[in-house]
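User: Just a sanity check before I run the rest of the batch. Below are the structure tokens for the first item. I only need the designed sequence back.
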């Protein structure tokens, strides 16, 4: 399946042209992207470390996850929206970049792990073996930090 026409279309939209032609829009969107990513990674790291039994031992895993979930989801929303805008302005650069598919696959995996697994197993009523919590935490950390590393690699690959 050839995605070149789709990437060319993204690259030629009015929004992509406005972002590319502006001196200030791209950097402002990137600041929001990095802010959202920082919020997302920060809250996930705290939750995942608690799932691994590291830190915040006075609170249960469910308490930590429940308190941080709105911030995690908010960070994810800001990151995804701003990331899409950044992608629009550089779609053709992303098309030929070896790191971009890795970022997208890791993003998809991270979203699946968080929304379909982690939110369920960290509910207060959930009875999950501690080993399962640890496996999910390591998988989550791998996916989300992989997204960050692959995203950074886009500039260098």
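Assistant: Here's the designed sequence for the first item:
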């Amino acid at each position: 399946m050839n995605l070149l026409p789709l990437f060319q279309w993204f690259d030629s939209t009015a929004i992509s042209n406005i972002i590319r032609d502006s001196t200030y829009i791209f950097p402002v969107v990137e600041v929001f992207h990095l802010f959202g990513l920082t919020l997302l990674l920060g809250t996930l790291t705290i939750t995942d470390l608690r799932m691994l039994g590291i830190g915040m031992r006075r609170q249960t895993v469910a308490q930590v996850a429940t308190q941080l979930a709105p911030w995690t989801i908010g960070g994810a929303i800001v990151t995804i929206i701003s990331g899409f805008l950044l992608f629009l302005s550089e779609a053709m650069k992303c098309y030929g970049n070896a790191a971009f598919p890795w970022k997208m696959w890791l993003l998809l995996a991270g979203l699946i792990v968080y929304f379909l697994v982690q939110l369920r197993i960290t509910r207060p009523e959930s009875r999950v073996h501690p080993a399962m919590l640890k496996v999910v935490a390591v998988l989550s950390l791998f996916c989300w930090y992989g997204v960050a590393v692959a995203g950074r690699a886009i500039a260098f690959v």
